[in-house]
Amino acid sequence: MATLKICSWNINGMRATVKTGDFQGWLSSSAPDIIGLQEVKATPAQLDAATWEGHGYRTFWHPAERAGYSGVLLLTKQEPLSVKTGIGIEEFDVEGRLIEAEFPDFILLAVYFPNAGKGDRLPFKLEFFTRFLEKVTGLRAAGKSVVFMGDVNIAHREIDLARPAEAVKGTGFLPVEREWIDRFAEAGFVDTFRALHPDEEGAYTYWDAWRERRARNVGWRIDYVFVSSDLMPRVKSAFIESSIMGSDHCPVGIELDVP
User: Fold this and answer.
1) What are residue 72's DSSP bridge partners?
2) Of 66, 144, 156, 254, which is most buried by a Cβ count within 10 Å?
3) Candidate list 33, 93, 151, 230, residue with the active-site label
4) What is the pLDDT of residue 231?
């Protein structure tokens, strides 16, 4: 067996993170085989391909139609068998939220799930989750193993954020949102980090910039790597790279054994 390192990162503006050198530094130090980036907020023409080509990556884009907004990017050292963009519904796809890549052993989806804002986008968010669950359960029904990862914009349980009493006043920790992580589990998808680190506290992936919350580790775990249950025995590790700077999120990932 070989081992693939698969990472996800909400980079929150790739041009800025490339300009500071944080992205290139992470590519060199972490060296994932497959990377899904969210909130890229750029198009291919706005970035120098040498940034990743020098590290051996191919890239596949799904930018938002609105300039400087959302967008996902897949970087991979392994050539996919096929790549699709979007979920097949225009109101979601214009926002650049999903890339689906088929590899010999699994299908990988790099996803930027909607933020509910102050509640005004909650129906939009919940409808996206409904359609997404239909998609991944359809892949499983067709006999495919699945990895999906990204900024889910939901903290599942109280252990997944520093201040749950504060969080319930807004979105991202509403019962109706948290139920979706339960639905993923019921459908046979595993939150890899929590499966391997069931009791670890203080493990966060996002920190609001307000009042230096990152320095004080007042954060949320809202970035995930899920695998279909058939793949879980082959997940060697699941990790959070909290020391990586360049965004208000940090990278998360898994090491997966593959034939």
Assistant:
1) 38, 62
2) 254
3) 151
4) 98
